[in-house]
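WARN no homologs supplied; continuing
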Amino acid sequence: MRNMRTPLLATTKTVTALLCMLGVISNAQAQFATTIIPVTPPETSAQPAPAKGKPPAASPVAPAKAAAPAPAKAAAAAPAPSQARMEPRPVDSIMVVVNNEVITRQEVADRLASVVKRMSAQNVQLPPRDQLVRQLVERMIVERAQAQMAKENGIVVDDAMLDRAMQRIADQNKLSMAQFRTRLEAEGMNYASFREEIRREILSQRLREREVDNKVVVTESEVDNYLAAEANAGGQRQELDIAQILIRVPENATPDQLAQRRERAEDVLRQLKTGADFAKTAAAYSDAADALSGGDLGWRPADRLPQLFLDGVAKLQDGQVSGLLKSGNGFHILKLVGRRTADGAQAAAPAVQQTHVRHILIKVNQVVTAAEAKRKLTELKERLDHGSATFEELAKLYSNDLSASKGGDLGWVYPGDTVPEFERAMDQLKPGEVSQPIETPFGYHLIQVVERKTDDASKERARQAARQAIRERKIEEATEDWMRQIRDRAYVEYRNDE
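OK structure emitted
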């Protein structure tokens, strides 16, 4: 879960997920945000035909001159009470059908208000309303298709899991849940809506782990090439801040579709070359997940970026825009926001402390509450303190972790290998010492440090770091392709009744 800083929502971006941001907006923007997407009002019912066989009443005035205006004048003079109260008003209606579900105009309007606040807080210029709505609807289509796929695969984010995620966000901001809720509402965010945003984000992440992350393979030859490239760079590690606009090409695109998307990308590039703001243009045209954040990818190590991006910005100066770059996902336009050399070159890697550690984990779920898990571990700690059982014996009997069969042994771990809460508690222990119950996102732990050693970063450690960098880069590339496939394979029907 991302760390959130004051103002509470001011730095949030998502790929995820859209999170409403704090921001003061102008009257024009406020009107833009709160305008309900219009729907066609119901048509006025036609006047009933005269009863069959009954002629119209006779009139001394010729029918051609008197029949039409007379009812109108009578209605204006004496409207029925029920008719006087009937005024046209906006109603909700279906905007898009996604497979077997719908997205309504009210849903889009609600999300639109959130997006406008977030973009305003990030100082991203608002594109024309119709373009922003189009971008937002496309994102909601992908989200809905992802949720349907997750449901088909039995992936669920229940309320208990969501509550724990919300608690971690509050803890990161050093707030109680009551204070956190008050803070959200003070910044204009509905608490229930925020919870659903977090649910969607967790659901998307778990689905991606299943469909993308677990299928990514890194070969030893790729690791060798990576380390060789690092050595040739003399240990200097570069970081880049890049923004992108992606014009996505459908899977198995026809030549006509490819030509249309290229023409659209070239038109976007012409706008940028003539002075259009990059962030505003990305929000209006980009098909990437970061479009509504102005396309900014943020600072990233060069080894975490696709080679296509590195080649595309290699000769650019800060602030310059690339030409069109073609990938399997479509056409990219990149802006080099900044370039810097990262601190701590690998050539000067410091000695690191390794810890041999084991633990007993009691997971918190719908059956076992946090209080029960903590109480159980407190009892086990007392048994260890009195010497009535060994750590290995209790771990095999009670731990909910895969390491239970090995007596809770996690082996030698490096700094950063475990979550921060676990690592902080572990670092405070002496060899042979057992911690009090420690809470992490996985549940409650008893931790025992077996021994420690200090060693230079080994070759295997360097290979692990290289393997992780390659894996993250491949996951990002595969995720873009996966999202494109989800969108292309979904049945989408637009209801244009405006």
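Residues 1-84, 344-348 have pLDDT under 50 and may be disordered.
OK
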